[in-house]
Amino acid sequence: MSRYRDLYQLAFGYVAPPYPWGGVPDPANLIPLKSVILGGRAQYRDGIRQATVLKTPGFFYPLPNEPIVKANGGKEMETTALWGMGNKKGTVKEIPANRDWNITIEGLIVNLDEDDLPDEEVGRLMKILNHNGPITIDNEYCRSLGISQAVVVDFDFPNEPGEGVRYQKYSIVLVSDQDFGLEINT
Fold first, then answer.
1. Which residues span the domain enclosing 147?
2. What is the CA radius of gyration of the chain?
3. Terminal CA-CA length for the chain
4. The whole model's pTM is what?
5. If you count Cβ atoms within 10 Å of the first and of the last residue's Cβ in the chain, which end, N or C, has fewer?
6. CB 111, CB 166: distance < 8 Å
């Protein structure tokens, strides 16, 4: 196992496969694998590892070591109970809109040169995370879901105990964002 795969295993408890996987992956390379193989195509409930770049106006940061990217969405739904309809049971469902995507990015920033935390790289990531506005996500997985920008909702840099810790684990939670055009009728 590579040095990064070992660190991901240590930090997150599993190693997500790279994306795109190009068919059914070799299970020997993905242990421990939390997946379900459906119809010859791998579906990964724990996310995928993929090159990801976060951008703000005038600054960009390629997240190191192919972080794990997960996304989930859904529908806004209003339900109305059926009353006085004889033997019919249930509710009427109205679906006025799709919800925004919730995106989670988990990864490691590794200091390969010293036995200290990678403070400089963490500072570069913080510059993106402290941006007060939408950021651009350049990631093939997100593009495939129609996600190109998002707003940072939360982030976490857990403290790893021990001397000589050379990596910083991080987690970023974002919500997808879209530009909307408004027409003003006068």
1. 3-177
2. 21
3. 65
4. 0.69
5. C
6. yes
